[in-house]
Design a protein that fits this description.
The protein has 152 residues and is mainly α. 68% of the residues lie in helices and 0% in strands. The longest helix has 17 residues. It is elongated and about 55 Å long. The two termini are 33 Å apart.
Amino acid sequence: MARGDAAAASELQKAINYFAVLGLRLDAARSRLPLARTLASESPEIAIDTARQARNELDALGDSREADIAAALMRSLGAKGRAGPRAAGLLTQREIEVLRLLGEGLTNAEIAARLFISPKTAEHHVSRIFAKLGLAKRSEAAAYAVRHLGAE
């Protein structure tokens, strides 16, 4: 890419595909950023879409620094970097921990004991997770955790 090699985009896409096959979501998402930069001059729409995919995946994985870089890249290409405030709809690190435990089927009391917090605080975290993700039941949260967080 740095040398201006015409095959750079193709090689980056291959790397992303390999990372995806191996289940390396973070590496795949991070690799989308240089791919978007490579595509920016000749295919800005595709570059924006690639940066958006990176931003969404990085946000979901909790890598806010890289997600911010992706959002900045989108803005530099003329797209909106984020639809709303950065924290809107995103889970905090603690909420991600609680969501993982919900995925294991733990009750609020069990979550509280595992994280050394009060049951009331655990209940608050669970409520915030439900609100942010638009969930109604613990089983939905557990399914979401399994699908989106995977094994730690």
